[in-house]
Amino acid sequence: MNNKYLSFLKEIRSFIPEERIYTDEVRRLAWGTDAGFYRMIPEIVIRSDSEKEISRVLALAKSSHLPVTFRAAGTSLSGQAISDSILVVAGKHWEKYEILDEGKKIRLQPGIVGQRVNELLKPYGRKFAPDPASVKSAMVGGIVMNNASGMNCGTHANSDKMLLSAKIILADGTILDTGDEESKKRFAQENPHFLQRVEELRDQVRNNKELCERIRYKYAIKNVTGLNILPFVRQDDPFDIITHLMVGSEGTLAFLAEVTMNTEYDFPCKASAMLYFKEIKEACRAVVAMKKLINPEGQWIVKGAELLDKKSLASVNDKTGENLTAILAETKASSAEELRWNIRQIESCLQGFETFQPVHFTDKPEEYSKYWAIRSGIFPSVGGTRKSGTTCLIEDVAFHIEDLPEATADLQALIARHGYEDACIYGHALEGNYHFIINQSFSSAEEVRRYESLMNDVKGLVVDKYDGSLKAEHGTGRNMAPFVRYEWGDEAFAVMKAVKELFDPDNLLNPGVIFNDDPECHIKNFKPLPLTHPLIDRCIECGFCEVNCLTCGFSLSSRQRIVIRREIARLKHTGEDNARLEQLEKGYRYLGNETCAGDGLCSLSCPMHINTGDLTHVIRQLSLPKGSLGYRAGDFAANHFAGIKNGLRPVLTLADTAHALLGTTAMSAITKEMHSLLHVPLWTPAMPKAYRVPKNLEKSQPEVKEKVVYFPSCIN
Ligand SMILES: Cc1cc2nc3c(=O)[nH]c(=O)nc-3n(C[C@H](O)[C@H](O)[C@H](O)COP(=O)(O)OP(=O)(O)OC[C@H]3O[C@@H](n4cnc5c(N)ncnc54)[C@H](O)[C@@H]3O)c2cc1C
Ligand code: SF4
Ligand code: SF4
Q1: In this structure, are residues 117 and 97 in contact, taking their beta carbons and an 8 Å threshold?
Q2: Does any ligand 3 atom lie closer than 6 A to the CB of residue 114?
Q3: Which ligand 2 atom sits nearest the alpha carbon of residue 546?
Q4: Do domains 1-266+492-511 and 269-474 have the same CATH topology?
Q5: Residue minimizing CA distance to atom 3 of ligand 3
Q6: pLDDT averaged per 10 residues in sequence order, the chain, 716 residues
Q7: β-bridge partners, 177
Q8: What ranges do the domains of the chain cover?
Q9: Ligand nearest to the CA of 600
Q10: Residue 501: predicted pLDDT
């Protein structure tokens, strides 16, 4: 760590407690890893917990000229939540919310997981509109800052459309709440030039008719390439423009401390149909026709239409779909009667198309959930069967709906031409938005060139031929940064640059993301994925397991354990840096191994069903071979548990008495010392008192056949 970082560290230690600052090898690598295929290791990781703290960190970073990157759940795919400088994590301590106006609006801090917001809104019959497939893990900060979207929200209900106001912290530490008149007044008084520049940019865009049209055209479909410049066309008030510029800015303009958003009505009645077509173009033509169906209230009748190409269907062993293309269509309504009416409209529309089987919509959850399981099984299936050591890449592009049939067929042919045999195309056809998954190795220069050549051709197809979006949902990151100007053209790019210069004149907020002067930044800093252990080799580092991992935020999460094991395996294999290897191995002992509860809860939300606890068991077995002293001690304890338990009671009583006499501070200091010198278990104030179930209570329990084993806390 150089002197600049050392003095920054010294300063932040004066107002951030040590346990929320990480500088060790293990946690820098662990927190520096996101779901994308790039790797950067931060110098310092800060687990932030308040606006005031962030404001001070940013002001200090500015005066020290040090770059800062923010992170929520770290599920980003394009290399935008990683840093080689300071990484500020805003997850766990940022989960406050306020439900407003009977659930029609909601105020949220950035660390709340999207699915949790849906649970909060459910009693009001409302939902959080942005719906990325990662919504069970992704957090509000990441969802808004990536302008993440999914199957239903399209462009009509994405973060840009639902956002009402935002509390932001600018690069110099200034806090602005665009939902608070006082805050706006203060900001206007103290920063008149900032607002003036926003108005100048607005007028410059509006006076250029051609540019306005281009902006409207580009955002008629999903687009997250570059900064979001739609606010200059849609919003008049400079504070509203500032608010909406945040959407999709990937942490390059400011820190997002709070948002107030509209919510969406959650239709109670749903029906889906899996429609099979012999030709992919015919399937797309059917989607184009379905998109035109409108009900008397002017709303779309078809709420979702997911395309699954033949490779996608093969990946999930869909026998019906062999060599076919499927469209999984969904309609929603307020009542059963309205739902039936919707289905009749769609059936009548589809009569003009050649479907492989008769059209059949089902409103039975047990039936349609099978269709959706096929859809959500594609990614884990492709990722799970990839060759070891390759990365499972998901790209996401969008075309205008009228171009869909031709563009889809072209995209399929292009990927095949590049020899990606197992690549699948699937996604939100109703929005013209496709994902394609490829299993890519970056282990040789030849493979890197192959990927580069694919991306160049994708650029040619999406931009030159169809004027579509190179990134529709997943953010520009480092992956598309070299192509922003190419996709948007000079004028629009200049506006984006001017916004960046206004908000972040020193280029300290997430530098290299969205704007990057290196034309090859998308083929650098690849994350190594070495073979490590068959139990975890399929891991794609998506981070979906972290919501369930008991130790996420305490020591390491399940994903982070895998990341460290991989790096240990790589360093052992290459012999590249033995000192670092030693530090990782040493650090992993407590953070990775000893604190893992081995319960396997992480596997519940893992698309690959990986149980990191199993890996922990293997590591523990290896470190305690049969016959060793530790093994024999454990064996003895297991076979004499009642006696051991009784023996432990006096120890706990002694600890409790000592705590009462010495107080928490002295007791912590003494036991910490004993722990490091004698390796006795570490005492914490949360340690339970010895407890014995009263005999009369034991006897008063009725005899029951079924027994329940209740673990009141983590069994570790
Ligand atoms: C399997 C899989 C499926 C996915 N499916 C989708 C999908 O369907 N649609 C989609 O859009 N995306 C998808 N993603 C990508 C990703 O999950 C989403 O974009 C998600 O919204 C990112 O949220 P996060 O909380 O993980 O944010 P992070 O990855 O932590 O951060 C995202 C960006 O926001 C910035 N940021 C985070 N918090 C703040 C803050 N408080 N202030 C300022 N900047 C901040 C970060 O610097 C970063 O640039 C998928 C990812 C995976 C792994
Ligand atoms: S263990 Fe599973 S959920 Fe966790 S990062 Fe790996 S693939 Fe994703
Ligand atoms: S087994 Fe370990 S990694 Fe998995 S949830 Fe439990 S503590 Fe986390």
Answers
A1: yes
A2: no
A3: 4
A4: no
A5: 558
A6: 94 96 97 94 97 98 98 96 97 96 98 97 97 94 96 92 98 98 97 97 97 97 97 97 98 98 96 95 95 94 94 86 93 96 97 92 93 83 77 90 92 91 89 90 88 93 96 95 96 98 98 96 91 93 94 95 97 96 97 95 92 95 87 85 84 88 89 83 81 70 69 54
A7: 167
A8: 1-266+492-511, 269-474, 531-620, 631-700
A9: 3
A10: 98
Angle 534-540-544 from CA coordinates, rounded to 5°: 110
Residue to probe by mutation, ligand 3, list 137, 536, 550, 614, most atoms within 8 Å of CB: 550
Q: List the CATH code of the domain at 1-266+492-511.
A: 3.30.465.10
d(CA 580, CA 333): 58
pLDDT at position 705 is 72
Residues 642, 652: Cα–Cα separation, whole Å: 16
- Segment (H or E) for 60: helix 51-64
What are the tokens at 372? 């959706």
Does an H or E element contain 579, and which?
Answer: helix 578-588
CA 139 to ligand 2 center in whole angstroms: 17
Task: Report CA(372)–ligand 3 centroid distance (Å).
Answer: 28
CB of 555 shorter than 6 A to ligand 3: no
CB-based contact 617:623 (threshold 8 Å): no
For the chain, how are helix, strand and coil distributed in percent, rounded to 5?
A: 45, 15, 40
Q: Is the CB of 223 inside a 6 Å radius of any atom of ligand 1? A: no
Do 352 and 289 contact (CB within 8 A), yes or no? yes
Give the ligand whose atoms come closest to the C-alpha of residue 247.
1
170 lines ligand 1 (CB under 6 A): no
What atom of ligand 1 comes closest to residue 71's alpha carbon? 30
Does the beta carbon of 110 lie inside 6 Å of ligand 3?
no
Give pairs for 197-205: CB < 8 Å, separation 24+.
197/498, 197/502, 198/238, 198/241, 198/242, 198/502, 199/238, 201/232, 201/495, 201/498, 201/499, 201/502, 202/232, 202/235, 202/236, 202/238, 202/241, 204/495, 205/229, 205/232, 205/233, 205/495
Residues 6+ apart with CB under 8 A from 432: 221, 222, 398, 399, 400, 401, 403, 404, 407, 468
Number of the ligand closest to the Cα of 77: 1
Q: Is 139 in the pocket of ligand 1 (CB under 6 A)?
A: yes
DSSP annotation of 688 reads P
Question: 678: alpha, beta or left, given left = phi > 0 and alpha = psi -120 to 50?
Answer: alpha
Task: Pick the atom of ligand 1 nearest to 477's CA.
Answer: 49
The DSSP element (H or E) to which 646 belongs, if any, is helix 641-662
**Residue among 103, 259, 70, 255 at smallest CA distance from 178:** 259
Question: What is the distance in A from the centroid of ligand 3 to the CA of 551?
Answer: 7
Query: Rounded to whole angstroms, how far apart are CA atoms 400 and 433?
Result: 9
Question: Domain 269-474 belongs to what topology?
Answer: Vanillyl-alcohol Oxidase; Chain A, domain 3 (3.40.462)
Cα gap 306→312, rounded to integer Å: 12
Cα 278 to Cα 282, 313, 356, 374, 434, distances in angstroms: 8, 13, 6, 19, 19
For ligand 2, the distance from its centroid to the CA atom of residue 558, given in whole angstroms, is 7
Closest ligand to the CA of 605: 2
